[in-house]
Amino acid sequence: MAQTEKKGGLLRKSSASKKPLKEKVVLMYDEIFTTEDPSKCNPRFWEELFLMKVNLEYLEGKLEALDGEELMKIKDNINSLFQHCIQALGEEHPIRVVNALQTLCALIRGVHQKNKSTSGFDIINMLVGFDKAELCMKNLMESLDSLLCAEGSESLKSLCLKLLLCLVTVTDNISQNTILEYVMINSIFEAILQILSSPLSRREHGYDAVVLLALLVNYRKYESVNPYIVKLSIVDDEATLNGMGLVIAQALSEYNRQYKDKEEEHQTGFFSALTNMVGSMFIADADEKISVQTNEAILLALYEAVHLNRNFITVLAQSHPEMGLMTTPTSPVPTTPVTPLGTTPPSSDVISSAELPLDADVQTSNLLITFLKYSSIVMQDTKDEHRLHSGKLCLIILTCIAEDQYANAFLHDDNMNFRVNLHRMPMRHRKKAADKNLPCRPLVCAVLDLMVEFIVTHMMKEFPMDLYVRCIQIVHKLLCYQKKCRVRLHYTWRELWSALINLLKFLMSNETVLLAKHNIFTLALMVVNLFNMFITYGDTFLPTPSSYDELYYEIIRMHQNFDNLYSMVLRLSTNAGQWKEPASKVTHALVNIRAIINHFNPKIESYAAVNHISQLSEDQVLEVVRSNYDTLTLKLQDGLDQYERYSEQHKEAAFFKELVRSISINVRKNLAFNTLSQEVLLKEFSTIS
Question: Which part of the chain is the Armadillo-like helical domain (predicted)?
Fold first, then answer.
């Protein structure tokens, strides 16, 4: 018997002596694409259709090939197909249900392609007809809800979630997707929570469920009451919240692992050999090429959970003793679509061995640690737009955390110490820190390290002003908590002070270039006020009296930078230009720093002259400082420990609108409905009675 080949819906005999034969399902599709009712000649037409293997490519292609007018002519048949798909979802035979789900995906995507054209017909009318839309969509959502909550097939649940993701992402701007009104009215929120609270379901479908929830929360979130926002904000079930945290932790951990693998591969490659020969001159350029695609969808889910649900804050510090212990899923995992690095959902309820702590006896992994590591990678390179968005979102999440009283409590808890190995950008003037030298410290130290690292590594021509402002705000909010609760944190504050002074130096050195694009005085004022916080309240939160002395030492040692800043802002505040007012604010803020410099410098010079010392040591300067505090006069500055709380709607709406659009496009692009091959499905549903 001659071999048959299948291509584009055609069955062709290899002898090529006869005309190609169309698959039966393709012939049935062709009948739908006529103006006649296909069930007139064949009463069992719809029953037979859903026993046929779906040809997604042909069906979508056929829909896309028609113009709006042609499609309107067959609207009744399209409506009928859509309605019979919904009916088939209630069938007992799983194969019918699978085929109905896949057909619905193709219909929605194919019809939407036409909605982009000038014909301008409404997608809901085209799919179901206005008169039946409410009832049909209610039935569809109820069927999907039942399938997701049932004990049945995991493959069916996977397809249901993919159909829902298809529905949500069918338009770039999800708020313009009118179909979602029916998803709001007929909520599947509880079904999503059920998936996240069950270990088996979470392992199989957690990633899709979390991304779906993050997208649904963003539907017209500023224009109307979104039930998914309301419901997410009041979830208090521990198993559900922990399940959501686990899914997010796994996805971020997977990104961290892939980055680490690429980094190691990179270091053992050609560039490493070259660097060994010629020194470190190529290090920065070589490492810039290490790139793993960021995962904004999962980061958005983390943001929404942290921002909307106070109870989720506890999940951030929830340690997971099973992390790093590899287990095999108890049931087959459905094939996942091929997606770019960093976007593939992890397939099990475990974290990779890369997340294991250095001390094998101490389990130190949690969601916040994984997130901080992720942030340290994506915030390295902000030149790429996706990384810039990711970096900004990381800082927004950290802003929400830094404002939360409970989060601050565990961040600063001396009994919760961790080693957090952040990724540091390779720089010629510093050695790579050895991982094993990392001390165990409260988690706030890792947050501060991340902020210091960002400050030090992004002083460049394309200056990320917005990210710097957020960075300084996070530090300020943490200091406000420490001052309020009198938390004496044992941290290397000198590194922060040094980074801040170098930032001021950079702003002054590049005044002309930066002022053409940014109001640098806003940032300068924030930095100066951080020093004012330390000067005014440092005795309440710095770990020891000597730490306070060291603060004065750093200000005196680097006095030239503060003098130069004062000269610059004085010059601009006495001119009648656009920078007069913001520059004068910095002038007033410098009053105490200048008082310290003007008070101690003469004393130090006098001490040096009396003792015939040309250059004083640090200890000698500190001795002068300690013995002259009593004659120093400082002004009390108001509002140093006050800050404006984060508000998404008023300041970040445009950013999130663009971010969600980007995520929607990416999810749609990577959504594959045919990943569950017919062979896999037939194995799972081996008997059709």
Answer: 435-671
DSSP tally for the chain: helices H, then strands E: 34, 5
Distance CA 89, CA 140 (A): 8
Pairing of strands 4-7, 10-13: antiparallel
What is the residue-wise DSSP string for 20-85?
A: PEEPHHHHHHHHHTSSS-TTTT-TTHHHHHTTSPP-HHHHHHHHHHS-HHHHHHTHHHHHHHHHHH
- Torsion-angle region of 3 (φ positive above 0: left; ψ -120 to 50: alpha; else: beta): beta
CA 90 to chain CA mean position, Å: 37
Give 334-397 as a DSSP string: PPPP---TTTSPPSSSS--GGGS-SSTTS---BHHHHHHHHHHHHTT--SSHHHHHHHHHHHHH
Helix axes 24-32, 56-65, angle to 10 degrees: 30
- Extract the tokens encoding 655: 């950013």
Is residue 295 within 8 A of residue 342, CB to CB? The reply is yes
**pLDDT tens digits, 616-631:** 899 999 999 999 999 9
Element at 401 (helix H, strand E): helix 385-403
Burial of 471: CB neighbours in 10 Å, binned 0-12, 13-18, 19+: buried
Lowest mean pLDDT among 201-210, 273-282, 516-525, 634-643: 273-282
Half-sphere exposure of 174 (CA within 13 A, CB side): 34
pLDDT, one tens digit per residue, over 261-282 is 888 777 776 555 544 444 433 3
- CB 74, CB 32: distance < 8 Å: yes
List beta partners, residue 4.
13
